[in-house]
Amino acid sequence: MPDQFIQEKITTLPPTWLAEMISSFLQEDVADDDITTAGTIAEDLDISAVVQAVEDLIFAGGPVLTTGFGQHCQVQLLVEEGELVCAGSTLAEVSGPARIILSRERVLLNLIQRMSGIASKTSEYMALVKPFGAEVIDTRKTIPGMRLFDKYAVYIGGGRNHRLDLSAAVLIKDNHVRLVDDLGQAVASFRRKYPDKMIELEVENREQLETGLACGVDTFMLDNMTPEQVAEMVPVIRTHPNGRQAYIEVSGGINSSTIVEYARAGVNGISVGALTHSVKSKDIRLETVS
Prior knowledge:
Layout: H1 15-28, H2 35-40, E1 46-53, E2 57-58, H3 62-70, E3 74-77, E4 84-85, E5 90-97, H4 98-129, E6 135-137, H5 147-156, E7 170-172, H6 174-179, H7 183-193, E8 199-203, H8 206-215, E9 219-223, H9 227-238, E10 247-251, H10 259-264, E11 269-271, H11 274-277, E12 284-288
Parallel strand pairs: 6-11, 7-8, 8-9, 9-10, 10-11
Antiparallel strand pairs: 1-5, 1-12, 2-4, 3-5
Helix pairs in contact: 1-3, 3-4, 4-5, 7-8
């Protein structure tokens, strides 16, 4: 797939940003004033602990563990990012001051549980659509502050990242279309102002599709259509001179029960907001061993 259509690839979590985010999460939890741990655990006690998968999962979040514990503890990751692990597998070993490990445990587990949940669901969906040459795409339906974590997890699960933010690409949606006087002029203006940006148009019917083809947009988002409707739209795009190289995306409430039928219709990408807006975290635990 040409990279100009899906511009963002969140392949890493920037170290400085990650450290700052984890610090803010620990401050929210007042980890430096864990009164329970301080009242029960000797200040000079060092321990070892293991991070274990309680269920099968695709692991994502190694940098969270090494950054969150690593300044004061030794962390050894035993699995790779994106690796499929079985229930009971040890993901990492941590050793160091007991007070630090216990006071940071919940925050760090919350993050890697969510990230592994996203990676696992993305991998599941990718396995369904890969035989048809389609790919799973994320959206901006993320919790504020969590977007990089979420999109990184989608990448680790084998999916593709769409817009990181509103500056990344032009996405003309239904509300924009209703308020613009001349879509063709708007697209031409975008071409002049942002020659390196992808221009995507959300379409809900044949009339909007024809307008987009006439304007020569780069990507069509076929929104809230049935698989049958999408199958009718794809040949219309591909037989038009401006649509032969266009990227075709489909969106709108797609889940594991319907995603294969959309992939069969011949689209390039399937955006799934549920990857991040309603993900089920995977069960991961930390257990002390000495």
